[in-house]
Amino acid sequence: MKWFGRKAAPRARPLLFAGFGNIFAAEPWPRSYEAQVRDSYLANPVAQRAVRLVAESVAWAPVYASANSDGEAVSLVAPALLETVATQLLLHGNAFVRLIEDGEARPAELFALRPERVSVEADAAGWPVAYLYKVGEARSRIPAKDGLGRPGLVHLKAAHPLDDHYGLGCLGAAAAAVAVHNQATRWNKALLDNAARPSGALVHDAGDGSLLTGEQLDRLNQDMAEQFSGAGNAGRPLLLDGGLKWQALSLTPAEMDFAGLKAAAAREIALAFGVPPMLLGLPGDNTYANYKEANRALWRLTVLPMAARILRGLSDALAAWWPGLALAVDADQISALAAERERLWRQIGAADFLSDGEKREMLGFARERSG
């Protein structure tokens, strides 16, 4: 039964980031998903490390299953699949997992499709009935469910307050900080290419008020570009004649503070992907105690919620073959959370008013059977 009636019809997938009008019209931030991935994940070390840190943590989290004693369902959820899905959720906000059946119509393999190639096909009421997968000019249609009500594709998505069918990734929120960080890197590289100091100006003062001709200006510009620009010519002496003198230019301390600018942008990137900046090597209170707390916060606030979202979606799909299946992360085996578990055991063990059975139940163990 469709409890909430009609859903909005799927619209064209919105731009991941719309920019801020014409304020930065000289070099707008990329708007397409592919361009943002190139600028953020492929070209920015902070964004790439943040995504990898979360995705790899999700991939290697210990997974167990209930109501599936032979472990078939768990064997389908490989670390490589979890890492790919987590990366897609962080970047795109959507992940589409294809279920491939064997000769006995049972799940044999799960693999993730490229999310930018998949679109939702809805019925007249706006409910998804199929997914269109497009590669170049080739298209394939994957029904949401087969004739027996079993899913052919699992759509995992992050929450999006303005879209019924697609999730919201982190690239849009990180685009501004990534653009600033990349531009600061290019600026610093240009400074290093010019002996780590800004350019200067050639001042012509002939004394008689005469001006340089166009031909002289062209020759002068060509000589400067060929003989005195770039890292290979850094520190080379400059021979001037004809009333020319070199006037060095300097930058203000605020203009030279690109280290602080990059650090602030890097923190915003880490914030967008849910990673404590300390874990990315950014400046801060880098003590061992703070690092442990940052690592614990990463697991509690980012990794475990994402892993739960992914495993819950896969469990709901695979429950068509294994009724009652529930995939989850075994938090007791995560070393970053060992201190929490130790404290819980110590507190419950000291509770004399609890029976052994009650203590076992509070710690997640089944009660011992009597008799």
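^ that was protein a. below is b, sequence first then the tokens
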Amino acid sequence: MLGSDGEVRTHKVSFSSETAGAKIFSFRIEPFADEVIKENNDSDTLVRVEDEKPPILYTEGEPRWEYGFVRRSVGDDKNLHLVTLLRQADGKFFRQGLEDPAVLEKGFPADKPELFGYKGLILGSVEASFFTFDQLRTIADFVGQRGGSLLVLGGKNSLAQGGYVNTPLEDVLPVNLRFGAGGVPAYQDLEYKVRLTGYGMQHPVTRLAAADDENRKRWAAVPSLVGLNPTVGAKPGATVLASVAGPEGRTGSPVVLAFQRFGRGRAAVLATASTWRWKMELDHRDNTHELFWKQMLRWLVSEVPDPVSIETEKHSFALEESVELRAEVNDSSFIHQNNAAVTAEIKAPSGRTTTVPLAWDVRHEGQYLASFKPVDEGIHEVTVTATQGSRSLGTARANVRIADSTEEYHGAALNAGLLKRLAADTKGRYYTPADLRTLPEDISFVDNGASRVEERDLWDMPVLFLLLVALMSTEWVARKRKGLA
């Protein structure tokens, strides 16, 4: 249902695509019978569906139920690649999900190129002293510089209880870890129910059902959790998705799930390690646990950039418009590269391909620009390749749609404020229907500072005076010949 006059409502639609590639999704609202502008009742959006397996590294400090259940929950997802590193003893690790036996052979990545090869990072119950200071700083750069996503799970050796105060990760996390003079409290083995916040009810990680009522019912039926890492609450810029359920109206409930943006990436905290109970204490056909973790990991990597990326100002252009391309190029450590050779191959719907070189935009580090003029309507695929000498820096793909635009019909309502500002800036006047009666007199002369009124007698302008005399004389001669004078 639409809102009342002047009310804006957001309606979310859930759907999935069976195949990868560029898709156009069309949305339409049936117009009213007396609707004047019907063209803005339709809207198309271009979405590129990727069939990829973004790698996620999960490092766990001890064998525990959460580790095994998380692995099993996403094991059948063909679009998630979970690599796990489980510490069994000092210097000994159990590795799973590897595509190369040499990966993580020496434990947690020691440099940026190795760690930055992942798009998501999960830290379990592993104390800060497990990492070197350089590794902790690299994890912080993984989020802030690389644009990766970090999820920290609760546990006896996690967060403040794991000694992460005064480390490079303290600023990255969405929760406060400093308890002041009282010292850091221990990990709490309490049992509690989870309550979603208003934002949590709509967030893709915690949305177990499309309908709001069904989503509330499913979360009400979720078993209690056991175990919580105490924190000093969420940071000012953080978003809390779930907290410990308390008496109605209670504020300041302990944070269970929260996230925040940090630099180019984002960091989240799930201050417990007992979501496995959602699998063990519900009916075996219930998919709450699997759905939660699949959505969590997909969200973690959903906006993480690649070393080379390509974007356009918008997804749809008219045939007569020029399409502007902007690429960003980084190396494996995500350092901007200004001396790369960057080319774009544009494939039209007809199969015709055009190669366009991109030039470095001197105003921005690591960014390259180009434009092309399409000759066909339809969906074009743009493939950008960046090299540095004989070394490949990576490729990126995007799609643009070339079609007739109905953009002018959207937002067609009267914007009186904009018109008044334009009139004031151009020394003009804004008219309403009630003011139109004065319009003829007002437009007879507009004093804009560059015009002036000058009056002259007719005999002071010889050319016009002689022309007038000639016309009058011609008329007199004509009338004399015809006997009219």
